[in-house]
Amino acid sequence: MEKILIEKLIKKAIEMLNFSYAPYSNFHVGAALLTSEGKIYTGCNIENAAYGPSNCAERTAIFKAVSEGKKEFEAIAIVGGKNGKIENFCPPCGVCRQVLAEFCKKDFEIVLAKSTNEYKIMTLEQLLPESFSL
Ligand code: THU
């Protein structure tokens, strides 16, 4: 992926930290998902008083895209941190990895970022090897 596009995805993911609804954990997560057509779908985590119904930022972005007919993806940028302050990389949880595996190819790129110039890129295959599918 071009550097300019990586930076754009990271910027959008960082913007999403403002929309994160995380009154229980105070851990804010933002994501920006790139479709194969070049469109970007964003997401944030949305928590719930009953905890279980909470949704991660990555799944918010995927579900927004799939619900609008998009099913082919190139990359996702993810950022997160306590009170919205990014201090570490925020790798996707196991459930989100499995949801990504439903729609994304093995070389789908996962951009784990601390800022637009501090990031690392991992493939879905690296984060979820030997994934389950039917
Ligand atoms: N969270 C995400 O949004 N994405 C992840 O991959 C890991 C966790 C959210 C869920 C919850 O709202 C908060 O971070 C703390 O777990």
From TrEMBL:
Keywords: Hydrolase, Metal-binding, Zinc. GO terms for molecular function: cytidine deaminase activity; identical protein binding; zinc ion binding. InterPro entries: APOBEC/CMP_deaminase_Zn-bd, CMP_dCMP_dom, Cyt/Deoxycyt_deaminase, Cyt_deam_tetra, Cytidine_deaminase-like. GO terms for cellular component: cytosol. Substrate binds at N45, I46, E47, N48, A49, A50, Y51. Its cofactor is Zn(2+). PROSITE patterns: CYT_DCMP_DEAMINASES_1, CYT_DCMP_DEAMINASES_2. Its EC number is 3.5.4.5. The active site is at E58 (proton donor). CDD domains: cytidine_deaminase. PANTHER family: CYTIDINE DEAMINASE. Belongs to the cytidine and deoxycytidylate deaminase family. This enzyme scavenges exogenous and endogenous cytidine and 2'-deoxycytidine for UMP synthesis. This is Cytidine deaminase. It comes from Treponema succinifaciens (strain ATCC 33096 / DSM 2489 / 6091). The lineage of its organism: Bacteria, Pseudomonadati, Spirochaetota, Spirochaetia, Spirochaetales.
